[in-house]
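Notes from the 1:1 (GR / supervisor)

We went over the backlog. Supervisor wanted to see one worked example end to end before approving the batch request, so GR pasted a single chain during the call. The sequence is below; no edits were made to it. Supervisor asked that the structure be written out right there so they could see what the output format looks like.
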Amino acid sequence: MSRRRNKEKTREVILEAARTVLASDGPDALSLSKVANLAGINRGTAYQHFETREDLIKATVDWVGEHLSSKVFRGLYLESSNDDQDPTNRPIFEVISDLVEFAVEKPALARIWLFEVLASDAPDDDLFFRQFEQVTQELADSPISQDGIDVEALSVIMLAGYFLWPVWVKARVCTKEDRQEMIKRMRREVLRLFMYGVLRPQEFPNLQEILEQ
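Structure output shown during the call:
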């Protein structure tokens, strides 16, 4: 049991180092040697856990999907503004906020996840993508949404928007304050798109108030 825990701990140390390299330098800089050095272990130990660079990227993509799942979809439910339990419609706005913030703060990880999952033969194998598409489908099927939504197209369009916006941000801002302003701008426009392209806006007067802030 102790050996298993040590093995799992070593694997997580390697993955944490890989995420650090990817987040700071991008996928081109990733190598098992560099990750092993950052993790403080020898290359042989790293190769015992991940035989190739591609294995390490896949494990990182899996981690991003699981992390986003727990961060974005915790306690999510869909309701209109007529429900007294949720008068400000915060769930939808919180999902938008969490996705934009993750993408801007972890741009390299977000892009790697996006390209790997969308290029996959089975994107639904990824926990977060599967949940994102499922929630989008539930939203499209609900009476609070516009008719005729193409769920697959909408899911890909929205995820691409979330995770490519940081490319624009990185090229134009340097300070934390500027980055926060870019997060705010993206969050507002995604909400506007949802309000007038996906939802029935008359069901969400309080979301309109958020747009006007």
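Supervisor's comment: Confidence is low (pLDDT under 50) at residues 77-90.
Batch request approved.
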